[in-house]
Amino acid sequence: MITAVEVTPAWYLILGAAIFSIGTFGLLIRRNPLVMFMCVELMLNAVTLTFVTFSRMVRDTGGLSIVVFVLVVAAAEVVVGLAIIVALLRKRPGATADDIAILEG
Amino acid sequence: MIELVVFAIAGAACVAGAIGVVASSNPVHAALSLVGTLFGIAVLFVAQEANFLAAVQVIVYAGAIVVLFLFVIMLLGVDRTDNLRVEPLGGGQRVTAAVVALGVLGLVLTTLASTGWEATGVVGELDETVPDINQLGEALFTRYLYAFEITSVLLVIAVVGAVLLARRVRREEEIVDPGQAERQAEITERIAEAEARAAHTDGARNGATADDTEPETAGEPAPVQEVGS
Question: Does residue B38 contact residue B57 with C-beta atoms inside 8 Å?
Answer without folding.
Answer: yes
